[in-house]
Specification:
Radius of gyration: 13 Å
Helix content: under 10%
Oligomer: single chain
Shape: globular
Distance between the termini: 26 Å
Number of helices: 0
Number of domains: 1
Number of strands: 15
Order of helices and strands: EEEEEEEEEEEEEEE
Length: 120
């Protein structure tokens, strides 16, 4: 009857379009799809299920943190994906990646250190 919501199935609540550019840090909860550019960190509120999808033309210059992080664009900064990281074929990551589990398509590029997080 009652089921904990799985963050990998969390629907997208917010969409930031390709024509949007944000300068400064972002904090979100729930599901966020980012198609534009952010100069600053993009972090989910701790303790709430979160999913961040970075579209194919997205660019983040700063750190990224959420339960589930799907990268199809570019990130220049560290990523923390507590549950799962998904890197699409167009993903470009310049920075460290900490993950619970990882899925990586052929063509994805990571220039940084990969660290598996231990479940507590």
């Amino acid at each position: 009857m009652f089921r904990r919501q799985d963050s990998t199935e969390l629907p997208i609540d917010t969409l930031i379009s390709l024509s949007t550019r944000i300068e400064g840090d972002m904090v979100f909860s729930g599901g966020l799809q980012l198609e534009g550019q952010v100069t600053g960190s993009v972090k989910a509120i701790a303790g709430k299920p979160s999913r961040l999808v970075l579209g194919g033309q997205s660019r983040v210059e700063g750190s990224v943190s959420a339960d589930v992080v799907e990268v199809h664009g570019a990130v220049r900064g560290d990523i923390v994906a507590a549950d799962r990281a998904v890197l699409g074929p167009g993903a470009r990551v310049e920075g460290g990646l900490q993950y619970g589990t990882i899925e990586m398509a052929a063509g994805a590029l990571i220039q940084g250190k990969l660290v598996k997080l231990e479940k507590t």
